[in-house]
């Protein structure tokens, strides 16, 4: 039985989907105005592992993500670059999806663009207006926070306490915390609505999209910690105020931040590394392994040193996979006297791995059981106390957990070896070019390899 920490109840709860083994999962997608950074990747890799594990446990998961393709940040960036905002959004959406694919984040069933759900957004606003939860002013349509006393329940805040510190810069709003459902605008991009031309508020796109695909109640909603307030509170208010099916989301899940020197990595702080930049120096598997080495709810302090450390851990698993494959090709006995003990060890490791994953997807604990196993089995391998029977079982185990974690332990080491062999091949060709005085081409190869961080120094 899987247990999930629910931000709403602040407890770990047994996971029971609404419809037998079907799971509806929604994770807030990115605002596409720039390349995604590794903080974003942390959140999306975490939910990728979560959806992989749910599938491993036999659930049929429908994973939905929205794409925020209308936003002031997009419009501002487009004005700076002279591009059309929608074209700019499409460009960065494409890059985001490419980055996710490179990182092995491949379980999203549907990316839903806000701009393609305007009718659903408008219809939800109309319902809120007709039931008295929203009001129209000259600047837009707003949700009336005072009509939803539960506002603040996800972040455990009280509206009155909040309002003491809030100012109301927009005098047309009834309460300082009222948020825009529709912003009246006559400059492009805008969309038609019953309240004139304008753009939807940020919060309404998510509930309009989830209601369209999942209905007013669904199983899992995820995102980074920063979204709890006000974004997810606003989502709850928009949906639960008018729905009889509560709570809107049965399990709210939030990832911890990827920080740099204690501060959240973010575009606005300028302390970010894009996924593309990082992947110039590290393989996607190394970064994935780095992310899953920490529990999804805990913060990660990003540094090259910690990344290197987790790379070392990953290499230990690759090494075991390599040894297993090599031994399977060699003259190892089919069975040995140690089989019984080793099967017990493997069974216990598998149980501990799954127990840790069942316990709110505790990937670091799951990995520690794997490392304990590697230490023990290596001892037997070094003393030639291993049979083909056990090696095959280890191979299957590594394949299965690799599938859950999204890291291919068995084939990646071949990539590592292949890279080395290819670099040797290229440098040998370059050496021959130098001997033939083909300096220009030889220099070109050195520069291009340098761009890939493979540095060649020609010494006497
Ligand atoms: P945004 O495009 O800023 O709305 O972010 C998209 C998703 O990435 C949200 O779920 C954010 O919470 C998450 N996110 C952004 N920055 C970080 C970070 N430094 N660490 C973890 N998650 C992040």
SSE inventory with pairings:
Elements: E1 3-6, E2 11-14, E3 22-27, H1 38-56, E4 60-67, H2 72-81, H3 85-102, E5 110-113, H4 118-130, E6 134-136, E7 140-143, H5 159-165, E8 179-184, E9 198-200, H6 202-214, E10 218-224, H7 228-240, E11 249-255, E12 258-260, E13 263-264, H8 275-281, H9 284-292, E14 300-301, H10 304-328, H11 339-358, H12 363-382, H13 388-405, H14 409-435, H15 439-451
Parallel strand pairs: 3-4, 3-10, 4-5, 10-11, 12-14
Antiparallel strand pairs: 1-2, 6-7, 7-8, 8-9, 12-13
Helix pairs in contact: 2-3, 4-6, 6-7, 9-10, 10-13, 10-14, 11-12, 11-13, 14-15
Verbal overview:
The chain is of the alpha/beta class and 460 residues long. It has three domains: 3-255, HUPs (Rossmann fold); 284-405, Isoleucyl-tRNA Synthetase, Domain 1; 414-451. 50% of the residues lie in helices and 14% in strands. It contains 15 helices and 14 strands. The protein has helices at 38-56, 72-81, 85-102, 118-130, 159-165, 202-214, 228-240, 275-281, 284-292, 304-328, 339-358, 363-382, 388-405, 409-435, 439-451, and strands at 3-6, 11-14, 22-27, 60-67, 110-113, 134-136, 140-143, 179-184, 198-200, 218-224, 249-255, 258-260, 263-264, 300-301. It has a five-stranded parallel beta sheet, sandwiched between helices. It has a four-stranded antiparallel beta sheet with strand order 6-7-8-9. A three-stranded mixed beta sheet has the order 13-12-14, with helices on one face. Helix 1 links the parallel strand 3 (22-27) and strand 4. Helix 11 runs parallel beside helix 13 (388-405). The longest helix has 27 residues, at 409-435. The mean pLDDT is 95. Adenosine monophosphate binds at residues 28, 30-31, 39-40, 42-43, 223-224, 226-227, 255, 257-258, 264-266.
């Amino acid at each position: 039985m899987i247990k999930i920490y629910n931000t709403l109840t602040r407890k770990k709860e047994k996971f029971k989907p609404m419809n037998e083994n079907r799971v509806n999962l929604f994770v807030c997608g990115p605002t596409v105005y720039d390349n995604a950074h590794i903080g974003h990747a942390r959140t999306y890799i975490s939910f990728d592992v979560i959806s992989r594990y749910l599938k491993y446990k036999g659930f049929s998961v429908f994973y939905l993500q929205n794409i925020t393709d209308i936003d002031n940040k997009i419009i501002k960036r487009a004005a700076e670059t002279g591009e059309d905002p929608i074209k700019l959004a499409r460009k960065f959406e494409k890059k985001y999806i490419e980055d996710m694919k490179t990182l092995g984040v491949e379980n999203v069933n549907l990316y839903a663009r806000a701009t393609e759900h305007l009718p659903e957004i408008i219809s939800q606003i109309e319902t809120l207006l007709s039931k008295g939860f929203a009001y129209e002013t000259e600047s837009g349509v707003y949700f009336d926070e005072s009509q939803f006393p539960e506002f603040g329940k996800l972040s455990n805040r009280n509206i009155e306490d909040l309002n003491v510190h809030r100012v109301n810069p927009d005098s047309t709003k009834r309460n300082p915390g009222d948020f825009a459902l529709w912003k009246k605008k006559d400059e492009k991009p805008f969309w038609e609505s019953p309240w004139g031309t304008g753009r939807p508020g940020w919060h309404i796109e998510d509930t309009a999209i989830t209601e369209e695909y999942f209905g007013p109640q669904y199983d899992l909603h995820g995102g980074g910690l920063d979204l709890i307030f006000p974004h997810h509170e606003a989502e709850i208010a928009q949906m639960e105020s008018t729905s009889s099916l509560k709570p809107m989301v049965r399990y709210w899940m939030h990832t911890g931040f990827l920080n740099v020197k204690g501060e959240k990595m973010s575009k606005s702080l300028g302390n970010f590394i894009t996924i593309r930049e990082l992947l110039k120096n590290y393989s996607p598997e190394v970064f994935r392994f780095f992310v899953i080495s920490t529990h999804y709810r805990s913060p990660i302090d990003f540094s090259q040193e910690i990344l290197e450390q987790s790379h070392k851990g990953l290499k230990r698993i690759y090494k075991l996979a390599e040894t297993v494959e090599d031994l399977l090709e060699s003259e190892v006995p089919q069975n040995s006297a140690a089989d019984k003990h080793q099967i017990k060890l493997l069974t216990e490791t598998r149980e501990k791995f799954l127990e840790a994953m069942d316990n709110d997807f505790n990937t670091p604990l799951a990995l520690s059981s794997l490392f304990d196993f590697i230490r023990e089995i290596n001892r037997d391998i070094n003393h030639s106390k291993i049979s083909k029977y056990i090696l095959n079982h280890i191979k299957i185990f590594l394949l299965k957990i690799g599938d859950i974690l999204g890291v291919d332990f068995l084939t990646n080491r071949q990539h590592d070896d292949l890279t080395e062999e290819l670099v040797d091949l290229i440098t040998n060709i370059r050496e021959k070019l130098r001997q033939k005085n083909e300096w220009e081409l030889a220099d070109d190869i050195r520069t291009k390899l340098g761009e890939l961080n493979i540095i060649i120094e020609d010494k006497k």
